[in-house]
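[Solved] Which block belongs to which protein?

Original post:
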Amino acid sequence: MENQTPVGKKALLVFLLLLAPAAFAGWTSSGPLGGAVTAVVVAPSNADVVWAGSSAGVFRSTDGGATWADVGAGQVADVARLAVHPKDSNKAWALSSVGGLYITADGGASWTTSHKFAGITATSLIVDPNDPNTLYVSGACYAGYEPVPLPGMGLFKSTDGGLTWVSVAPGAGILSQCVTEFAIDPLSPEHFFFSGPYSDIAGRLESYDSGRTWEGVRASRPSLAVLFDPRYPFTHYGITSYFGAAFLTSQDGGLTWTSALPTLPLASGTFASLRALSIDPERGRLFLGTGGGLFRSGDGGRVWAPTQLPEVGVNALSFGGTSPALFAATTRGLFGIADRGLGEARSIDLHQMGANTTALDIDPSDPMLLYASVGEPFSTGATPVFGQTFQTTNGGASWEPLPGDSNVAMTQIVVDAGGTVYASSFRAHSLYRRRRGETQWTMLRNDIYVNAMVADPKTPGKLFLSSSGIERSTDSGNTWQRVGSISGSALAIDSSDPRWIYAGSEYNLYRSGDGGTTWVDIQPEPRIINGTRGIVVAPSNGKVIYRIGANVGSPRPERSEDRGITWRAATLPGGVYPSLLAVDPRNENSVWAAVSQYGSGLFRSADGGAHWKEVLGPFGTSVTATALRFDPSGRVLHVAYPGHGVWELTVECEGVCRTRAVRQP
C-alpha cells in the first residue's frame, strides 16, 4: 500500500482521528465475468431445452442454446452436478457444494432446498430414467493417510424426488463411504457401478439389484459414465478414471466388458484424464471429454480424432438442440459444437460471475486502477493452464480484458510506484512486465518459478521476488541481483519505509533494513515449528507486522510490534486456519484474515488480533479467497475468489484511524 509524502498539487494529506464502530455497506461485484462450467444437460423430453451449471449458478436455454437466462434466482451457487427430469423439461435438480440439493419444478423460477448435502464433494447426481422420483447422489471423502469424513460423503437414494434420502453405500464403516465414481446403466437402471478407495476388491463393486447387494470385481468397470447406443441397445460404452483410466465396451447389455486405454491424438508424452462420454443417438458417433480436449470416434471407440474444441478440460457433455449439436461444459466455459459435434466450437457467453481469479493487485498511486488474472481450474491437459488478465479503471465497477494479453493464468501480480505491472505464471514458469500505456506484455524471464513478489511502493522499477532465493531488480526487471538465499513464499515490504523488507519460509524468517542489500535472521525459536507462511506490514505503522505462523502444522495469525523480533498469538475463533492477511491502511490494529475452512471465509479484528468477528461473505461460499487488497485509502477491501471473480466491500474505520496520503489519479 502507498504511504507517500505529498508532492505538488497532485497529492492530498489529511489526518483524521475517528472513533467509530465497524460498518459495512454491502458487497458488490461486476466481474471479471466468465469462468468454468461444471455441468450441462439437454432435457431428454425436449431437445430445445438445455440446462447448465457453474459456480455462478444455473442457466437455461429454451431455444437449443441460442439464448440463455440465469435461472438460479440468486439462490443457487457453486453447482457441481445437474440432472433434468426425463419427461418434464421444467423440472431439474442442482447439487451445490455449498447449499446442498436444490429442486425446481418451474424452469428455475423458484427453488426448494434440501440441505442434506451442504458441503458435499459431489461425484454424481443421477435420475433413474424409468422412475423420475428415484435419484442417487454420491460424494467423496479425503483419502489420505487417514480418511476425513466430509458432508455428504457416501451413496444415497431418494424415492420421493429428492425430499428424503437413505444411505445405500456398500458398508457401514467410514472407509466404505468414500465414493469416487458412481454410475448406473441407463438401459437397466438397477445395475450399479461403484469405485472407491476402500471398497472390497481393488476398489470396484457392482450391484444388479439397485444396491441391495454388492459384489467385488477385479476388472475395470464403467463407474464414471455408462451409456448405450440407441440403435443397438445391447451395445454399451463406458469410462473410468479411478484405478486406471479405461474406455470400455460391452456387446451383451453391460454384463461383460472389455477395456482399453484409448489412443488419443495428444502431444507426445502427455496424458489427459477421462472425464465425460456422450453419443449421437442417430449416428452412434461417440464423444470423449478429457482433461486435455474433446475427441470423437465413429467406429465404436477403436480410433479417435480431435474435434474443433480447444485443448481444454471437459467437465460434462450432452447432445441435443434445435440443430443437433454437442454441448461441452469445460474449464474455459460452455461451448456448442455444431454439425452434430463435427463442426465449429462456438463459445457461449452465459454472462456469469464465475471467473476463477488467481491474482490481484492495485496501482499504489491510483486506487481505482486494479488488475486481476483469471484462469482455468487446474487440469491434467497437455497445455499450460489458459488465462486472461483484466483491468478496471473505476475501482471494480466494470472490467475489461487487457489488449494483447498473453493468455496465461498469472499467479502473482504486483504494480510498482510508476504504474508498471509485473506478473508471473508458476505453471508457465515465466515473468512478464507491462508498462502503463503499453498494449502487450514483455516476457522478462521464462526460466523461473516465482513463489512471491513485491514492489517498492515509492521507487518506480524496484521490486523483489522469491524463487530459489531472494532477487532484486532496480531497472523494472531488466536485470536481477541475488540478495538472499531464502526461497519461501512469504515476502512483504514496509510501505511507509521501504528499506524494511521481510522474507519467510517454513523454517526461516529474514529481515532487511537497507532495501534488501543485507539480511538478518530473526526466525523465532524453536525454528522447526515456527515457520512463516504469509506476512504483511501495517501501512500506518511499520513496526507492526502480522504473519501466518506455521505453529506445528496448525497455522494461526501472529502479531509483532517490534519489526518481527517478538511475536504473540492472534488465534482465530475455533482455531481455524488463516490463508491470507490484510491490514487496514488507516489503523494497524484493524486486521482481516481469509480462512480455508467451511464458512464465510473472512474474519476481522479491531484490536490487533486479540478478538475476532466473522464477516459474512458475499455469497455464502466456503471457497478460500486468493487475494485480499485494501485500496490505498483503506475505504474499500477487494477480495478475489476462485470461481467467483472479485468483490468489493466498503469498510468504515475501526478505532483510531489515519487517512494516509494518496496520490490522486
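(Second protein starts here: sequence line, then its C-alpha cells.)
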Amino acid sequence: MSAVDQLLGTSAAIAGVREQVRQLVGRSQPGRRLPPILLEGETGTGKGLLAGVIHREGPRRDGPFVDVNCAAIPEALLEAELFGFERGAFTDARQAKPGLFQTAHGGTIFLDEIGLLPSALQAKLLKVIEERLVRRLGSTRTEPVDVWILTATNENLRRLAAAGRFREDLYHRLAVLTIQLPPLRERAEDVLVLAQHFLARACADYGLPAKTLAPEARQALAAYAWPGNVRELSNVIERVALLAPGALVTAESLGLPSSATAASSPAAAVEPDAESPLGEMVETIERRRILDALQATQWNISQAAERLGISRNKMRYRVERYGLRPDARSSRRVPKPHPEPTEEVAAVAPPAAPAPTGVRWERRLLAFVRAAVVMPPAAVWVDGSRQLETLVEKARSFGARVEELGATGMVAAFGFEEGEDAPMRAVLSAMAMLKAVERIPRGGSGTFAMVFTLHAGEFTVGQIGDTTQLEGEARRQVWKLLEELYVDASPNTIVASRAARSLLRRQFEFVPLAPGAPPRSYRLLGYEPTRFATDGHVAPFVGRAHELDLLRASFDAAAKGHGQI
C-alpha cells in the first residue's frame, strides 16, 4: 500500500483528494524549490495524516518531517521553538539550540493550526518563506534553511485575512496550493469502510479476537452526524473494541444517540458557514443552549448531554469547541480580555452561583491513570505538547475526567460517573493512550517515551449537588503513589499498583517489576478479555454438581442422536 492509499474511502470527495495528492507529488522534482501547501478542513478530518502522506510520497521523503501544533505551544515559547535561540537570549537559555525550521532542513515542516499563529510571528514566518533564512533569538547572523512548508487550519484563512485577523500577504504565500479535506458527514459512504478498518486495527493491536459490526450498529454509525469527524469515529471504534463483550459489536455498545434524537439535537445539524451572519447566529444559539444545560446540571457532562439528547463524547467536543468553562467567561467566539460589553457576552453571563447546600460523603470505587512524558536531553517541549493533546482525547473517549494537566503529563480519573467499571476503563484507556503514542511519527527534535501508572481502590468522595470531588488527603496519597510507581517504571510501559492489579488480574496479565522481592508494583503484559482465572489457572466450578450432571446427560443424549438445539 502506498502512502496515498492510507486515505481510505470510496467516496468521490476522498478519491478527489487522493488524485490531487498524486498529481502534486508527481510533478515535484528533487532539488527544486517546492511550493507551500495549505490543508483546509474541520477538526478531525485527517489533516495531520494527509501532511504525513504528502511528505512520504514527495521528493523529500528521506528528509526529516517536523510536526508543529502552533496552538499547543505558549506564545512566549513559540518563537524560540520555531527559530531557535542563542545562549543567554533569555532566562534559562543556558546553551544555544536550533529551531524547528533548522531541524527540518532538507525535509518538511508541518505547521498545524496556522490560523492561531500570533501576528508578530506571522511577519517573521513570511520573511522566512521569502528569504529562506532564519535568525535565532539573541543572534546577529542569519542561517539558510531549505524546508518544504505544509500548513493546516480548520478556519477559513481567506475570510480571516479579509477581516484583518491574518496577514493577507502571508495567506497568499501559504496558499500557493490548497487541498480541502471534506468532513465525514459529506463522505457518508466512507463511514462503514473506516469503521471496519479501525475495528480490525484495534483487534490486531490489542491481540483481540476479530469482531464484526451488527446490522443495527452499522445503521447507527451511518445515521450519526460525526461532528468530530474521522478522529471521533476512530476513538469510538477503539473504545468499543476494548469494552464490548463478544465478537459482535452492537448499536448499544457504540453509545451513539438514535438517528431521530441526533437529527433533532442542535449539535447534529449540518452547520452553516461560521463566518456568515446565519452561521454566527446558529453558533450563538447552540452555545447558549449548551451553556444553559451545563449550568442546570452543575456542569455534569453526562446529565447535560442527556438533557440535550446527544452523546457524552459529542457534548465534550462542543464544550471544547466553544471554549466553555464553569465560570463561562472563556469562549473561542468571545473577544479576549476586557472587551466592551456585547450582546453575546451579556446573553451567556452566568447567574450567581447558588450557595452550597451541604456535603454528602460516600465511598466509591475509583481508578486513576497518570501519563508522563519521558524527555531525553535531545527532545523539546513541543513533542510532549503534541502527545498530551492525543492523550487527553483518548482518556476522555473512555469516560475519564482530567484531574491534572501539565506540560509533560496528566492525571485522568475514572468512576466519578456512576455505573462505570472504573478499573477496567482506566487500564483500557492507558492501553489506548500507549498505542496512540506508538502511532505518532517520531521526528524533528528527537524521540521520547511515555510511562503510564495506574492505581484503583475505594475512596471517600464528597458530593455537593452534582459535583463530586475526591477527599483531599486521599487525593494527596493517590498522587504520591502514582509518582512512586513512575520511579520504578521503564519507558513505554504501564505499571499498576498492587491494589489495581488485584482488581484486574482476572482479565489482564501482570508481572512484578522487581522479581524476588515483595511486589509493590506490577507491569502490564497483556489483555485477555475471555479469561476467567485465578493467578493464571482456570478456576474450577464449585457447588455445581447438579448443573454438571445435567450437562453430561445432555451430551450423552446428543451422542445417541437425541440432542436438541
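Accepted answer:
You had them paired correctly. Confirming on the second one: Residues 277-296 form the longest helix (20 residues).
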